[in-house]
Design brief:
Number of strands of chain B: 2
Oligomer: heterodimer
Helix content of chain B: over 70%
Order of helices and strands of chain A: HHHEEHHHHHHHHHHHHHHHHHH
Helix content of chain A: over 70%
Largest sheet of chain A: 2 strands, antiparallel
Number of helices of chain A: 21
Distance between the termini of chain B: 43 Å
Radius of gyration of chain B: 21 Å
Shape of chain B: globular
Number of strands of chain A: 2
Strand order of the largest sheet of chain A: 1-2
Number of helices of chain B: 22
Strand content of chain B: under 5%
Structural class of chain B: mainly alpha
Structural class of chain A: mainly alpha
Shape of chain A: globular
Largest interface: A-B, 39 and 38 residues
Distance between the termini of chain A: 22 Å
Strand order of the largest sheet of chain B: 1-2
Chain lengths: 497, 492
């Protein structure tokens, strides 16, 4: 079994695993406050992994390893590449913050982040129920630990506890659902399950019973209402350096397993899961956007905004199949738009949390919306980056968030059913509500007077990365074509194999 | 690679604006102002070759640029000008120069952001008038909200935050409904966002009606038409002088232009069927809002309501479906661009000195500021449509078309002239004429050279257009004729 192809397929994962262990060991000898050696090793690892996965993705070949347990395809490799880049950005933004809060006494943050990324990679490559589940558990266990990393901080500890209990329950749901499907089909292999379910020889009720649990578990991980309760508490309670990790790369993984399980595995049941996703989407759009209005804490507001944004992703995922039939064109549009949405969303989230992290100082969290007051007078650059992100999340052109919303709306309307068109109208109305709370933050930054006149000091690396990150949100808005084509082509490859 | 004239017209101000934003803080205010002026002038100069090269004999799109932009959606960077959109490009660039001059000493805080915002806004608005691809149009159309929101919110009056939110959310609601209409047309046309392709697309009666109202939501709010005009007075009152001038002079035109570019040619049957509805709303705007203007105590509010009434004239002219009416509406749009911009700048001149917009706080300004009063009264006369000023030509053409269509319609429309004269002249009397009203007015000093230049160029434009409107109408004729032919054909 251990042939060369298999090893090549899992090469990025192997690099990550080895380096995570190496960094854990090297870190024993590191003395500096900012843990420079561990940090740069982590960055190097992430860069290598991003480059490896990126070049694999650019080749666009699909390969299976270990008897079809794992797959390396264009979609997966792009998502891995983006996840590694996202993790790099998280490390850059988070390091000064973590050092100020006694979270860098040891190098756990780096090791755990690499293990979390390994979990993400395994989730993305999994072509087998158990592999997917293993990846998920690795990711979530690392995340629980990261949230609890500030061990003398009550709020963080509470958030970690909440996250753990709810996350364990969600994993239980997912595992239960998977075992139902396994029981019905007798296989853990995704493509075999697809064939068996498609043949129609399996009892529909059992499958749907399992499906409900799978969808619930996925909704938990994606943060879709009504399974969203952990998101606001964890986003708010976790140290911001960890919030940005939880809010970025794992979303890509959640998208990947949603595609692997629902599209690659259970597409014959689309008519059932489509309705569930639509209900989740409507709830998320409604609850996320309305609850966000009432928030005064910026991290909590962004948490509810995430829930609302996930509603859009779910709409994209649900619109690929019309009347139980998935034509290649609709599916390409739908899943391509969902992937574009989630990738650009992660990019925007990174920059907005980057600004929050930047404004936090020793002993000051800067997580209330009012803490941003008059930011434009203190630092026009960072106020600019933040407002670019907020306008993008609100879906105002020419920022990338608009094209993401347009792609999803187009995927909905092109299917032509009355239901989908009315969902598009609903989503549009909800994004009007969303615009209110996003531009309210812009108002605080630009129209209100600053509480302190101090200028914002930032380390050079943070400044450069944050500027580039903000510029990308704008640039990808002006030229969204490339990334959009990339996502669609990755999805097309995934669908044809 | 050859850069097209329209690309230059759009991106020159945006690039200058971006440079200004990047250019530090208030200690460099002098450099910033000069750079902004240079940027605005260069942006205006690059639009001038358009006039020289424009062919008035054809109705087809000119200066066309068409390159793929987002391949996945078949979206193109498709630009072009015809007789309908032509003048607005020059008007926008021209008004931007004036606005930069008007802000010279007045804006002292965050000068680079103020100037940068206006230059970027100028490029975006030119983009709206040039775009021939629906996504490109929508991008420019919506993107204008961001600089305007910031302009109102940062440099506005005491209640600026309310005004900024009202402006942003009101207009966003309208345009989101238009977005659905655009996506719907994309699917109907088999995957094209090209506006010219949509002109030929057959559509059922129901689809046309839905589309017509989808577009109506966006454009009626922007124009603004009664009863969705309520955001305009609030915003005008709070916006800084430059913001008000650009809003009245150009932004309102984006809405009226949208009717000509989208609603009427894409859904011509629905447009004809619902013409009575638009005409009714327009007449209400002309008469009722005209009456509302009469009772205003605040000069900016008065001019804001007067703008609603004048824009009512524009939509009235369009929906008579007559050559003189449509051309009259267009002329009225350009004239109103000059006149309303000038009136807001005049109010700004007074406000900078007295810090009040209340009519009651003035009286006899002519005694202390004779030069300024001469300009102000000229613009006021243009606002009520005095012959030989810009305001007259468009109103006259629209009334002519209205009378031709229906005598009573013409009669009602003509009341606008009386109402316009009533509210404008009454304001002139109370603010400028009579004895010196109070000590503030007594202490006023006349306009300086900068203000003189700013008002003089506008005065020249107003008089030129009033005396010799031929260059304006010549450019339009072929396109308007073609437009009317297009909307007279059924697409059912």
């Amino acid at each position: 079994m251990m042939d060369n192809t298999s090893l090549r397929v899992v090469a990025p994962e192997v690099i990550l695993l080895v380096m995570a262990c190496v960094i854990a060991l090297v870190d024993l000898g590191v003395k500096s406050r900012l843990r420079n050696a561990s940090y740069w090793l982590t960055m190097l690892t992430l860069a290598v992994v991003a480059w490896t996965t990126g070049s694999l993705a650019a080749d666009g070949n699909t390969a299976y390893g270990f008897g079809r347990m794992v797959v390396s395809d264009a979609m997966g490799n792009w998502l891995k590449c983006f996840a590694s880049l996202a993790m790099m950005v998280c490390m850059v933004y988070g390091r000064p913050y973590a050092a100020d809060r006694d979270m860098l006494r040891g190098g756990e943050l780096f090791t755990l982040a690499l293990f979390a990324l390994l979990g993400i990679f395994v989730m993305i490559s999994g072509e087998n129920f158990l592999v997917l589940y293993l990846g998920l558990e690795l990711l979530t266990l690392s995340s629980y630990a990261m949230v609890a990393l500030r061990r003398d901080h009550t709020v963080s500890t509470e958030a970690a506890m909440k996250y753990f209990v709810l996350g364990a329950m969600a994993s239980g749901f997912l595992l239960y659902g998977l075992s139902m499907i396994y029981g019905a089909t007798g296989s853990l292999d995704i493509s075999t399950v697809f064939k068996i379910v498609g043949s129609g020889q399996v009892k529909h009720q059992v499958l749907v019973f399992g499906l409900v649990f799978i969808v619930a578990g996925l909704a938990f991980k994606l943060g879709a209402a009504p399974f969203h309760m952990w998101i606001p508490d964890v986003y708010q309670g976790a140290p911001t350096a960890v919030t940005v990790i939880i809010g970025s790369a794992p979303e890509l993984a959640a998208f990947a397993i949603a595609i692997r399980l629902l599209v690659e595995g259970l597409l014959p049941l689309a008519i059932d899961w489509q309705q569930m996703l639509l209900v989740l989407a409507v709830c998320s759009l409604f609850i996320g956007n309305l609850a966000a209005i009432a928030q005064t804490n910026l991290k909590r507001m962004l948490a509810y905004s995430t829930i609302g944004q996930m509603g859009f992703v779910l709409l994209g995922l649900a619109s690929g199949v019309v009347n139980g039939v998935g034509t290649p064109e609709f599916m390409r549009n739908a899943y391509g738009s969902a992937m574009f949405y989630i990738v650009t969303y992660v990019m925007t989230t990174l920059a907005s949390f980057g600004v929050i992290l930047l404004l936090a100082r020793e002993g000051f969290e800067s997580e209330e919306i009012s803490d941003l007051a008059g930011l434009n007078q203190r630092s026009p650059l960072y106020a600019g980056v933040m407002s670019v992100c907020l306008f993008s999340l609100a879906g105002v052109p020419p920022l990338v968030g608009f094209y993401a919303k347009l792609a999803v709306l187009q995927a909905l309307v092109i299917s032509g059913t009355t239901l989908n068109i009315s969902l598009a109208v609903f989503a549009v109305v909800m994004s009007l509500i969303a615009a209110y709370y996003y531009i309210r933050v812009v108002k605080v930054m630009y129209f209100d007077d600053p509480l302190t006149a101090t200028t914002v000091a930032a380390p050079a690396d943070v400044r450069v990365v944050l500027t580039v990150n903000g510029a990308m949100v704008l640039l990808l808005g002006i030229l969204p074509g490339g990334l959009m084509t990339l996502c669609t082509e990755a999805i097309v490859k995934m669908l044809t194999t | 690679m050859k850069v097209g004239l329209l690309t230059l017209a759009i991106w020159t101000p945006i690039v200058f604006g971006a440079i200004l934003l990047a250019l530090g803080r208030d200690d460099q205010a002098r450099t910033v102002r000069w750079l902004a002026l240079i940027g605005a002038l260069v942006s205006f100069l690059v639009t001038l070759p358009l006039y020289g090269q424009f062919d008035t004999t054809t109705a087809s799109m000119q200066f066309v640029e068409n390159v793929p932009w987002i391949r996945g959606f078949n979206v193109n960077y498709h630009l072009g000008l015809d007789g309908i959109s032509f003048w607005f490009v020059l008007l926008t660039a021209f008004i931007t120069v004036v606005v930069v001059i008007s802000a010279w000493e007045v804006i002292t805080e965050r000068v680079n952001q103020y100037m940068g915002a206006f230059l970027i806004l100028s490029g975006l608005m030119i983009g709206v008038f040039c775009a021939l691809d629906a996504v490109l149009f929508y991008t420019f159309f919506e993107a204008t909200l961001i600089p305007m929101y910031l302009i109102i919110g940062i440099w506005g009056g005491p209640n600026r935050i309310y005004a900024a939110f009202k402006f942003f959310l009101y207009t966003l609601l309208g345009s989101l409904l238009m977005l659905i209409a655009l996506v719907f047309l994309y699917t109907k046309s088999g995957g094209s966002f090209d506006i010219l392709t949509w002109y030929k697309l057959p559509l059922s009666s129901l689809a046309q009606t839905l589309l017509f109202f989808g577009f109506f939501a966006a454009f009626a709010v922007k124009v603004p038409m009664w009863p969705v005009h309520t955001w305009l007075p609030d915003v005008h009152v709070e916006a800084p002088t430059g913001g008000s001038a650009v809003l009245a002079a150009i932004m309102l035109k984006l809405g009226a232009y949208g009717f000509l570019r989208f609603s009427m040619p894409i859904a011509p049957d629905a447009a004809r069927e619902w013409a009575w509805f638009i005409i009714a709303l327009s007449l209400i705007a002309v008469i009722y809002v005209g009456l509302v203007a009469m009772v205003q105590q605040d000069m900016k509010k008065l001019v804001a309501y007067s703008s609603v009434a004048h824009m009512g004239f524009v939509t009235l002219g369009f929906f008579i479906f007559d050559h003189v009416g449509v051309a009259g509406g267009l002329v009225q749009m350009i004239a109103h661009g000059f006149v309303s911009g000038a009136m807001f700048l005049c109010i700004g001149v007074l406000y900078d000195r007295v810090h009040s917009r209340q009519i009651a706080d003035y009286g006899g300004v002519v005694n202390t500021m004779p030069t300024f009063a001469a300009f102000a009264i000229l613009f006021a006369m243009a606002n009520c449509g005095l012959p030989a000023t810009a305001g007259f030509v468009g109103e006259w053409m629209v009334i002519l078309a209205a009378v031709k269509a229906n005598f009573w319609l013409g009669l009602l429309a003509a009341t606008a002239l009386i109402l316009g004269a009533a509210y404008t002249l009454w304001m002139v009397k109370r603010v400028y004429l009579g004895p010196v009203g109070n000590d503030h007015v007594k202490a006023l000093s006349d306009i300086n050279a900068r203000e003189f230049v700013m008002l003089a160029v506008l005065a020249i434009a107003v008089l030129w257009m009033g005396v010799y409107p031929k260059p304006f109408t010549d450019v339009m004729n072929a396109s308007v004729a073609n437009f009317l032919k297009q909307v007279s054909l059924s697409k059912l």
